[in-house]
Amino acid sequence: MKVSYDQEADAVYIELSDKKPEGVIEVKEGVNLDVTEDGIIVGIELLNAGKKIPLKSFLSYEFTPDFLNKAT
Fold first, then answer.
1. Is the pTM above the cut of 0.85?
2. Is the confidence at residue 8, as pLDDT, over 90?
3. Domain residues of the chain, as ranges?
């Protein structure tokens, strides 16, 4: 998993898989899911991220496989 931040767009992107997204599902305004043709979520985009989450702590957090196992 990779987390990146585009300061100019104020967008956070969480890449969950290396698979190529074939579509986008808008969950709510400013929150988009990139999905494969089969509907598998491969990425999460948060627009206007600086207004929604504490970026400094979020971007410094290490998302490890152990964290993901606990979150599911």
1. no
2. yes
3. 2-71
